[in-house]
User: Fold these one by one.
Assistant:
Number 1:
Amino acid sequence: MGLKNLLASDQMSLRNYPKIFYYSLSNNTNRYIKKLRKENYKGELVRLTEDSGLEEQTEPFIMIVPTYLVGATPDTTKEIYTEVEHDLLEAYDNYKNCIGIVGTGNKNFDWQYIWTAKHYCKEFNLPLLYDFEMAGMSRDVDNLIEIIHELMKTKGEK
């Protein structure tokens, strides 16, 4: 489901800033989250760890997915470290309340850039809302907040 289809669908109401779940091993995603906090993002920002519990998510949320992989070809590639995000989406069918995925990675890895985010989008039929490289730039924070505002404006009327 693409972003335009999500904006047009009646599947989800969005009256408040959505919670954002994220995982950060190399600290790049955490640095991006700090930039969101500086911009006074009003939703809850939840860092996932291997010890995070799998709770049912009853409100709309967004997931920021970094890319950590092993394997040299598309056929042998396997995600590592981000299982906690996959498990959260899968548990209690939480993916049904996921607004979409934001991917992050390193463009130097060519076809592997945001591979995990694309994989989750395909597996759970979720839109890729946005992507950014490494810790993101200020414009990447602004762009995601703009996307969320557009979702709130469109979905808040439902």
Number 2:
Amino acid sequence: MSAVAVRAVVAAARLGWGLALLAVRPVAFWGAVVLPLVYLPALYGVGAVGYRPLLLELLALHVASILLGHGHSPFWTRS
């Protein structure tokens, strides 16, 4: 593969990643905002053994939402 072809592939990958983040970032941001509300019902049932994996999955989903949605700025904060 020539250097020009490699650069074209890298540019296309960056464009694709940027478009994917553009679509996912707002959803991840608002998921990170709203997801802690789900913790209360999950914590209420934490005494049962069956709810522990659910709580760990919620925490992992929250961390992923925070990381993916970090760069989002809602429309009312833009100047």
Number 3:
Amino acid sequence: MSLVGQALPQDAAIPREGRIGVGLRGEFPSAAAEFRRRLVHISARDQSADPRDDLMQIWELCEWARDEGIDVEPLLHAVADISGEVDHFGMGATRRLILRGLERH
């Protein structure tokens, strides 16, 4: 049964303000799983029209993950390993952008 286009059930939990993640029927992924999911999404896009936006998103995501107590380094390396190696816009390949999440700002 597809849930596409259907409203959430009445008992679906609504995320706390500021929480990253969307779940159905009150089930939320762990913070580490959500962090990885968002990194994979950035990787799959293989750079937006302005890779600086991707880099800012990576840094913000890593800051959030660190605040949640997640060790970001192994997850960044795992996602970088499956990321593109083509430099589309002169800012480095997606793999390199993902690894820049190791930087602290």
